[in-house]
Each structure stands twice: as C-alpha cells, then as structure tokens.
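Journal club prep, notes for RB
We'll compare a predicted complex against what the paper describes. Inputs for the C2G case:
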Amino acid sequence: MLSYRTKWESEMTEKKTIITYGTYDMLHEGHMNLLKRAKALGDYLIVGVTDENYDRSRGKLNVIESTKKRVKAIESLDFVDKVIVEKHKNQKAEDMVKYDVDIFAIGDDWVGAFDYLNEYTHVEYLPRTEGISSTKLRKENFSMIKMGIVGLGRDTQDFINESKFVSNIKVNRIYADDFLKVKAFTKDNDSIKYGHDNYDEFLDTNIQAVYIDTALKEHYTLIRKALESGKHVLCENPLALSKKELKELLSLAKKEKRLLLSAVKTAFLPAFNQLLKELDKGIIGEIKEVRATRTSLYKEKHYSDSFIQQGATNILSAYPSLLVNKVLGKSKNITFFDQIEDGYDINNLIVTKHKKRALGISSVAVGMKSEGDAVISGTKGYIYIPAPWWLTKTFEVRFEDIHKTMKFHYEFEGSGLRYMIAEFGSLIQRGKQKSKMLTPSDMVGINRVLLEYNEVRKSQIKTQKEEK
Ligand code: C2G
C-alpha cells in the first residue's frame, strides 16, 4: 500500500530535532551561547520557555520579565525554529514524544537532573558560560529595597524568614509601641538590627517599604502615615474597617504614587493563579456558583471596645471573597446568616449575587473547625480544591465522566508568604503601583463583604442599646 507523507512530515523525519528549556530572564550571553550550542547539535531547535507560575512553583521567585516578554525575546532569534511554553514538571517527557525529539540539551549546571529523560530521547548536558547569570544581572541593575515591619504579631518571624528568599528585599527594622518587646526582639534576632517604639522616627529612616501586621483597628492610621511619608505598604487585610477609609487609602496611594497591597497570600500562590488561567479558558463552561469555606480554631480575645473588629467575618472573609470575586466578579447583593457569641460573629454564612445570577457562598468561622475546601461549579463540570484551599497546591477539574478528571499540582515552598513578598518587591522595582494578581478593585471587592457586615452589626448594636 502506498503511503503519502506531507512535505513537512518527510522533512521532519530527516531533520534532527533538538529541544531545550529555560526561563531566559533578561536574555544574556550565557543563554545565547547555550542556545547556539544546542542548535549546532541538529537542524530544528525547539525552545521551551517556562511559564511564570511554573517558575514560581519550582522556587524561582525573582524573575523580572513576564512570560510574554521572555517568549518574544526567544522568538526573535533567527536560529530558533519553534518556541513553546513549559507549564508543569511532567511536560518535558510529554514534549519528547509529541515533537519526536532526537536530543534534549541543557546546561551542565543540571548534570544528572534530567537523566530520566533518556527513556524518551538522548540527553546532552552542554557547558555553561561562566561569570554571567540572570541573578548577577538583576543585582547589578536593581538596588535592594529596605523594608521595615510594623507590629510584633504572630506572623512577624515568619515574614522575616520568608523575606530571606526574596533577593531584592532586605528587612532590617521593626516598630512596635511596646519598647521592652521591641528591645527583646532585636536582641534575639540576627537580621533585624534596628528597633523603634516611635512610629514617626521609624518612618523617618531610609526604609522604602513597610509590612503592617497589628490589631485591625490600627491599620488605617498606620497605612495613612506610611503612605504620606512616601513608603510602599504591604498590610494584613482588611486595610480599613469602613468603605470610606478603604477608598481614601487607595486614592492616597495613587496620589503619592506608592504601592498599597493587601497581604492576602492566596492571591499570589502559583496554583491559585494557574486555577484562574484554566477557568478563563472556559474549562468547566459557564460558572454558576463558587463555594468556599475558611475556618480557624484561633479565636481572638474579646475586648468590649473592639468586638466588631475581632469577628470571623473581619478576620477570615477576605479569603473566600477573593475566590468568589476573582471568579465571579463584583458582588451585587449580600446576605448574612450569622451566629453571634459574646458579642461577635463566630460563624457566618455569606451569600452573594453576581453577574448572570451566579452565586457566591462563603462560610467563615472562628473557634470551630470545618472542611476548608472550595468548589467552583459550571455548566460542563466543576473544580474541586481540597482543604486548605487557601493554601492552594492542588485542584481537580471534574466532569460527569470520571475518566476525564484533570489534576493540577503547583507546589509552593515555605509558608507561601515569599510569593507575595516577591511580587511586592518586583512591583516596586519596576515602578508599578498595581498588581495584576490583586488589583485595587480586587481589594475593594474582597473587602465589600466585611465592610458591609460591619455596617449591619453597628446598626444592630445601636438598636440593642436603644432597647435597653
Ligand atoms: N545557562 C548557561 N550559562 C549561563 C546561564 C545559563 O549556559 N551563564 C543555561 C542554563 O544551563 C540553561 C539555560 O541557559 O540551560 C537557561 O537558563 P535559565 O534561564 O537559568 O533557566 P533554568 O532555570 O536553567 O531552566 O525547565 C526549565 C529548565 O529545566 C531549567
């Protein structure tokens, strides 16, 4: 029987196909040498450029250029024949088969790491160029951002530890209003040399940015002062406890040309961002409902003057609201089913309405434990994110036919804070005042629920007082 092959097919079988992968951040001579060496091994060179979420999940946090920019740079090289994007760990093996690769080439800094690909193709480690690297270029081109911490909270030490993985940030100062605690902290801590109990003096130093982690009711004043002193601000959520104050802070940041970011770490995790990308492709059809639960056994102490600030909704609702708002957009209509104990909400089921009648169902609680998972339901299938969904690593796309299930896994390292700190540092270095991962309108969106709930509670408390 005669077999017909297209011109391309017969050309491809005669040609030797080489494949190589890399980030190629700030494309330099070392990359160029490697690519040329790879091409010299055959005829047809495929280059896999790593996607930013994949890079972040394999611990590369400090990449300056976007995937798009890095892909364009490689595409412009005339000796490169095809550019693909590398999105996950298992893709290399899949690509070897898909592109019928003859040689997989990579720099010899990876010796041994890709021997497993010998099962699919021939693996070749090529000499690396000494004396040049993206890390070196980043250091030469961008200066270190000095950062101070405001508050001595439960997460202070974790923030300091995680910031050590971000190459352009140096945390070396702390402010808290308790002099003795500050003194003890700086004494025990190797990297935090300077301690202050006077906020104005702290802001008057050469720090360019602050991270605020204090009692919620103090956030507004501390942020305002920091922005007015020209500092970039990363602050635990909520930034403020009223709509008016939140809007005021966002416009102040805009006026001062400073970055103001809510420290909702989920928004910056590689898997969470990949999930949003998959949803954008319409993978589960039209989205009808998002349901997310976040509970914590940790219960703030009850202070009679600040009970509104301490409830489950204020402490936790930003997380489910983040997922609901990122997937369904702005909430139009909010209903609360709350459970009050000792004057504040220990449990709240929050139902929100969105565009095209989609529903958001957020469940938050403190001092009790529930399954912290999330489900996004669409007309073709649903996405399941196992507990704790807000520390997103894995998600599954499920359909009626269980054989079609797709599993996604994007690891994150440490406590996950480093991804948020890296984004914060990278935005400051690039002179950007907005993060695509958490825009100012996302920040308004994720706080809408708690700000509205505070209004509801205030009027309930007023009525109760009047009745007494
Ligand atoms: N390289 C080189 N000489 C340098 C720097 C880099 O030869 N001075 C090579 C690396 O060995 C690699 C390629 O250039 O083969 C791309 O390097 P990076 O951008 O640092 O990417 P890398 O993290 O090595 O990608 O799937 C991704 C790959 O597994 C590794």
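Talking point for the session: The chain has three domains: 4-136, 143-265, 270-411+438-467.
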